[in-house]
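re the bet — no i am not wrong, look at it urself. input seq straight from the record:
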Amino acid sequence: MLTWESATWRAAVLGRWTALILGTLMVLLFLAFVFGEGPPHFSGLTPAETFLFVAMGGLFFGLVLAWKWEGLGGLLSVAGFAAFVALSRRHLQWTFIDIPAAIGVLHLACWWRLRAGRPAELAPWHLPRNTLLGLVAMLALFLLLCANEMFGQPPFMTPALYPSANLLGTWTQATPLDVVLTIHEDASVTGTVAGDAVTSARIAFGRSWFGKLLHWNADYVIRGRISGRDFTAPLMATGHWLDGSLFRDNRPVRLKLRKP
């Protein structure tokens, strides 16, 4: 008969491997994001931004460290998450740091149970190979979905956009940039930005169901040209506003559009 000690020990073994595999995939996802977007310019960071970057480094480095020192790695990840929350509780809504923090907690729990050793009545036991392969396959799928959401333009599985009545019409703002954008029924967009005509522009969904689930990317994105130069404008629908930024020549300008 399987005792409580034996059951918890086996659960800890399973949890350890789950945490190691999932943690590795999260680290790879983080590195893909850093290399894809480019590392930050440290000279231009504020003290608060530097603190956040160090906290994020600890959060993800702890997942790597857990391969050698599970307890220490889990503690470092949890400490990095705590630093985020100490600066602002709104970071609790960031799925990108919530998941690594949960993995760190799992590492700590498994380390605490396994450090006591295997129960005497329990024969040596390892995670079944098929179970391990299944975990690897599911977590690899998770990583592919994340990469698709980050680098897809638009992401795979994003449905075609047929603008609703709330989205159709003319949206404007006066500052910091004079913008007039009209969204048409065929999802085309016309208007002006600082007096320059917008051409070849269309609006589309900016994320799939997976991105929405993880709170990644914007609801919509407008892509087109202004004075012969490409631009993108990711936008979130917040009440009667379209809130986001306009990127042209890799320079963002804040947008807060509303119908007049």
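see?? Residues 4-151 form one domain. told u. also The CA atoms of residues 99 and 191 lie 41 Å apart. so pay up
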